[in-house]
């Protein structure tokens, strides 16, 4: 992000959008390169594919309602169980695959980055006790509703707003406040109501089918 902002100053009003896509590629490619080099079992790949499919199902049927979707919830709960790397890959893939149904465009890489970063940062909680604090995760999900919107506002401003000024960015961010608030509220409510049972089910499946080594599974398992 610092490279992007520095480049915007150096370009002095020219080629902002192309430069932003260059920074975006630099951000996404290392994660996928590392993912490609990692040795993974077929079970992990299948489990990851199921997670991505759930995220797509949480978005596509609700597409008619602006910013009301369950994809962010799936990203957050899966990242807590799978960790930051899988969280980034699954989040970004949910954006790419769901846009096969909703429409691809220059916004797709930015959505991939936004949901990928949501999964990456949430996955960092996997080895801490914070992952068991539902109220903290409710706040976390609500914050990511706004952060996601700001990343997309950045793309919108770079693509369509001229001239680019500080006030232009502020107006772009302010104009999406209601939509970002809907995203934040959806995240908060879904985490509050569904986080515990989904986390428990996901961790059980990971252990039962040996998707990850037992030492890497997050959280305490409660078997009924």
Q: How would you describe this structure to a colleague?
A:
- Helices cover 73% and strands 0% of the residues.
- With 224 residues, the protein is mainly alpha-helical.
- It is built from 9 helices and no strands.
- It has helices spanning 2-11, 16-37, 42-57, 71-82, 84-102, 108-123, 134-160, 166-175, 177-208.
- The radius of gyration is 18 Å and the shape is globular.
- Helix 2 (16-37) crosses helix 6.
**H/E series:** HHHHHHHHH
Rg from Cα: 18 Å
The largest pleated sheet is described as: none
Distance between the termini: 46 Å
Counting DSSP H or I runs of 4 or more residues, the number of helices is 9
Shape field: globular
Q: Which class best fits the helix and strand makeup?
A: mainly alpha
Percentage of residues in helical conformation? over 70%
Report strand %: under 5%
Low-confidence stretches: 218-224
Give a quick precis of the structure.
Helices cover 73% and strands 0% of the residues. It has helices spanning 2-11, 16-37, 42-57, 71-82, 84-102, 108-123, 134-160, 166-175, 177-208. Helix 3 packs antiparallel against helix 4 and helix 7 packs across helix 8 (166-175).
Secondary structure: elements and pairs:
Elements: H1 2-11, H2 16-37, H3 42-57, H4 71-82, H5 84-102, H6 108-123, H7 134-160, H8 166-175, H9 177-208
Helix pairs in contact: 1-2, 2-6, 3-4, 3-5, 4-5, 4-6, 4-9, 5-6, 6-7, 7-8, 7-9
Keywords:
9 helices; mainly alpha; disordered C terminus; 224 residues; globular
